Amino acid sequence: MNHPILSSSLTESVYATLRADILSARLDPGQKLKIKDLCDRLSAGSSAVREALSRLGSEGLVLLEPQRGFRVAPLSMNELHDLTRTRGQIEALCIRDAIAAGDVEWEIGLMAALHRMLRMPKEVESEPKRYSQAFTDAHTAFHEALVAACVSPWLLTLRRLLFTQSERYRALTRPLAEVERDLDKEHRLIADAALARDADRCVALMEEHLALTARILIEAAAHGSGPLSD
Amino acid sequence: MNHPILSSSLTESVYATLRADILSARLDPGQKLKIKDLCDRLSAGSSAVREALSRLGSEGLVLLEPQRGFRVAPLSMNELHDLTRTRGQIEALCIRDAIAAGDVEWEIGLMAALHRMLRMPKEVESEPKRYSQAFTDAHTAFHEALVAACVSPWLLTLRRLLFTQSERYRALTRPLAEVERDLDKEHRLIADAALARDADRCVALMEEHLALTARILIEAAAHGSGPLSD
DNA sequence: TGTAAATAAAAAATGCATATTCTAAAATGC
DNA sequence: GCATTTTAGAATATGCATTTTTTATTTACA
After folding, report:
1. 3-state secondary structure of B197
2. Are A4-72 and A77-222 equal in CATH topology?
3. What is the pLDDT of residue B225?
4. DSSP label at residue A174
5. Alpha helices in B102-226 (DSSP H)
6. How far is residue A139's CA from residue A135's CA, in Å, rounded to a whole number?
7. Which of A12, A58, A83 to mutate to test the interface with B (most CBs of B within 10 A)?
8. Among A72, A172, A46, A79, residue whose Cα is nearest residue B48
9. What is the pLDDT of residues B146-171, one digit of tens each?
10. Domain segments of chain A: what residues?
11. Contact B100, B199 (CB under 8 A)
12. Mutate to test the interface with A, among B147, B154, B156, B161 (most CBs of A within 10 A)
C-alpha cells in the first residue's frame, strides 16, 4: 500500500501518494484517515500529512470534519448520476471550443495520444482486476488532448476537476467487467469525430461514453455486487 | 486589517479571515504572504496558518510555489475575460435547470433574497469606496437563491467556485465608480425573468450583468486607473 | 572603475516532537 | 436501564530545529 512518489517537497509527495491511492480505490470511500497511521505509513510528520489532507479536502477527494478528522470522500449512486450529467455538459463546452479553435498541432497531439493509449496494456499481472497505471495515465492524457485547444483555462480547470472525480468511479468498473466493452472503439470514434470537426457527433459520443461507465456501475449495484451506497 | 472570524477550530477562523481579506481586495493581488507575519497578525501558530493557506491554494485564491512560499493569486485582464465567459456558461446551465425545476419555495426564496439585497445599504461610512459586507453577503445570497432549484450539486459547486473568483474582480469595480450603474435594476430584471420562467431572457440578462462588471474594469484599465496587469 | 561571479549572512519555508484540547467510548453510579 | 463521570485516543496547536532561498557583500577580472 506504500507508493512513494518523489517530488520537490515532502508535502507534495504525501499529497501525490494519497491522491493516487484515493483515485485508484486503494483507499476505501468513507474510510477514516488517521493522522498518526498515515505518518507511520508515509514516514512523514503530521504537518506534511495534515497539509496534504487539507488540499485533498478542497479538491473534494477528502471529507474534513472539524475536530473529527479526515475521511475519504464517500461515493454514491446519486453523485454518480450528477457527476456524469455535469461532466457531460462541461466536456461538451470544452469540445465545441476545441473543435472550433483547434489547429494542426492539436490534431497531431490528439492522434498521438489516441495511438499511445491504444497500445498501452490495460492491466499488469501484479495487479489484476485493476487498470494499469500506464493505461490510466494514457487515458487521462487522451481526454486532455481532446480538449487541449479549448481557449478557456477556467473551463479546462473545471473539466479536470470533474474528470478527477470520475476517475474514482471509473476505477471501480474494471473489477466487475461483466459488461464487455470496446473502450478502444469508443475512444477511436470520439477522436474521429473531433478530427472531422463534427462537434455535435463528438459531443454525443462523449456523452454515450460517460453514460456507459455510469451504467456499468449502476447495473452492478442493482445486482448487489457494487460498493456504492444510495 | 484584523478581522477575527470566530469558528470551530483555529484553522477555520484563520482560513475565513484570510479568505475574506483576499475577496474584498484588502490584500493585494500578487502580494507575498509571509507565514510569520500572518502568525503575528492573526495570533496563530504556523500550522494553522499554513493549513489555511493550503486550502486557499487549491481554491485558487492563493498561489503556492513549493519551497518559495505563498502569495495572493494575481488578477489579470486575460483571466477576467475568461472568467466572465466561463461563468456565463455555467450560470446559464444552472439557470435553465433552476427555472425548469423550481417550485413555489424557490420563487419565494428568490423574491426574499432580492428584496433583502435591495434594502441593504451598499456602503458604510467606516469604509467608503468599498461595498459593505452586508450588501456583499446579500448579493451572494441573491445569486445563490436564483439557482437554488438547480438539481445538480456539482453544477452548483462549479458555479460557486467561479462566483468566488469573480468576487475579487467585483470588489475592484466599486472604487472606480466612473460608470454609473443601476445594479438594483439589473438584479430586478434577472429575478423577473426567472419568475416569469423565461430562461432565454434570464440567461441573456445574466450575461449582460456579468459583462458589464467586466467592461467597467476593462475601461478603467484602458485609462490607466486600473490595478490589473496584461 | 565597472561588471559579474562567488561567497557569506539573513530571512523564510518546511518538518518534527511535544503539549494541549477535544471527542468518543467505557465504566461507574443512580 | 439511563445518565453522568472518567479515561483513552485522536485531532489540533505551538515552538523550535532543519533546510532552502534570497539578499547583501566581497572579491576577482575585464
Report:
1. coil
2. no
3. 61
4. T
5. 104-119, 133-146, 153-173, 183-195, 199-222
6. 6
7. A58
8. A46
9. 999 999 999 999 999 999 999 999 99
10. 4-72, 77-222
11. yes
12. B154
Q: Compute the distance between CA of residue B173 and CA of residue B215 in angstroms, rounded to an integer.
A: 10
pTM above the 0.70 mark? yes
Nucleotide showing the shortest C1' distance to residue B65 CA: C13
CB B138 within 8 A of CB B120: yes
In three state form, how does the secondary structure of A60-116 look? Answer: CCEEEECCCEEEECCCEHHHHHHHHHHHHHHHHHHHHHHHHHCCHHHHHHHHHHHHH
Q: Are A189 and A204 in contact (CB under 8 A)?
A: no
State in Å, rounded, how far the first CA of chain B is from the last one. 29
Residue among A8, A82, A153 whose CB faces B66 most closely: A8
E strand or H helix that includes residue A12: helix A10-23
Q: How many residues does chain B have?
A: 230
Q: Which helix (H) or strand (E) holds B32?
A: strand B32-33
- At B228, the pLDDT band (50, 70, 90 cuts) reads low
- Residue A216's contacts (CB-CB under 8 Å, 6 or more residues apart) are A173, A176, A178, A179, A181
Residue A118 in this model has a pLDDT that exceeds 80 = yes
C-alpha B139: how far from its chain's center? 9
Enumerate chain A positions whose Cβ falls within 8 A of a Cβ in B.
8-9, 12, 47, 50-51, 54-55, 57-60, 66-67, 79, 82-83, 85-87, 89-90, 93, 152-155, 157-158, 161-162, 165
Please tell me the predicted confidence (pLDDT) of residue B227. 62
**Closest residue on chain A to B50 (Cα):** A51
- The Cβ of residue A166 has, within 10 Å, a number of other Cβ atoms equal to 20
Distance B69 CA to C4 C1' (A): 29
> For B138-151, what is each residue's pLDDT tens digit?
999 999 999 999 99
Across the interface, whether the CB atoms of B57 and A55 are under 8 A apart is answered yes
> For residue B229, what are the β-bridge partners?
B76
Extract the runs of DSSP E, i.e. beta strands, from chain A. 32-33, 62-65, 69-72
Q: Is the C-beta of residue B7 closer than 7 Å to nucleic acid chain C? A: no
Is the pLDDT score of B7 beyond 60?
no
Is the C-beta of residue A11 closer than 7 Å to nucleic acid chain C? Answer: yes
Query: Vertex A166, ends A163 and A169: CA angle to 5°?
Result: 160
| CATH architecture type of domain B4-72 | Orthogonal Bundle (1.10)
Q: Residue B152: which of A50, A86, A161 has the nearest Cβ?
A: A86
Q: Under CATH, which architecture does the B77-222 domain have?
A: Up-down Bundle (1.20)
Q: Give pLDDT, residue A6.
A: 46
Kindly report the CA angle at A56 between A50 and A57, in degrees rounded to 5?
85
